[in-house]
Write a structure and sequence with these properties.
Shape: globular
Distance between the termini: 56 Å
Number of helices: 0
Strand content: over 45%
Oligomer: single chain
Number of strands: 9
Order of helices and strands: EEEEEEEEE
Structural class: mainly beta
Radius of gyration: 20 Å
Length: about 190
């Protein structure tokens, strides 16, 4: 092997109590546990392979201020764009791909707040469960997708959302069956 070649294999990686907090110490993103299994990548193949990924009780707060400022904009570094990486022979390196055989998210939640509209938009997704099989970011690859969630707005009873189907990232496409019961879509009326 050449000196610039390397490989990383992780049979298992577990991270507990993850959080990304804002300046006010309120968490924007948190998760009880992230478990990765059968992780493999090396310098010769620009793909990160995961046999299994589990994310337990993830929660995210998505906030857009009245001036249109998204909370994630505070996380991004501003400045000049970095030049594309070059390989040793001067060619641009191919972008890395991600392949996950089995990804599961359980017990998730999302709080959405958007103050840009005349009537601010707010809703919550709870009991979010997501399962992806054979996820691959390589163009043209499709994967199976299963999503379940409860949508809440104000004090109204939660509605249910279920999706079963397949999707691809490039080109962006989704196909499947949607089952929706009592969704509080009036929360989205300002859009």
């Amino acid at each position: 092997a050449k000196a610039d070649q390397w490989q990383l294999q992780l049979p298992r990686l577990t991270l507990d109590k993850l959080a990304l907090t804002a300046a006010d110490n309120k968490p924007w993103v948190r998760a009880a546990r992230l478990e990765l299994a059968d992780v493999m990548f090396n310098s010769q193949m620009p793909v990160i392979k995961l046999g299994r990924a589990r994310l337990s009780q993830p929660a995210i707060r998505v906030v857009r201020a009245a001036d249109g400022h998204w909370m994630v904009q505070d996380w991004l570094k501003t400045g000049a764009k970095a030049p594309a990486a070059k390989s040793s022979d001067g060619r641009s390196d191919k972008p890395w791909a991600l392949a996950v055989a089995d990804l599961r998210l359980t017990g998730g939640s999302l709080a959405w707040r958007d103050a840009t509209q005349d009537r601010p938009v707010s809703f919550d997704l709870d009991d979010v469960s997501l399962q992806l099989r054979d996820l691959n970011t390589v163009p043209g690859k499709s994967f199976s997708l299963r999503l379940d969630a409860r949508m809440r707005h104000g004090h109204a009873e939660s509605g249910r959302l279920a999706w079963r189907g397949s999707a691809s990232l490039t080109p962006l496409a989704i196909q499947g069956a949607l089952n929706a019961e009592r969704l509080p879509l009036h929360a989205l009326a300002p859009y």
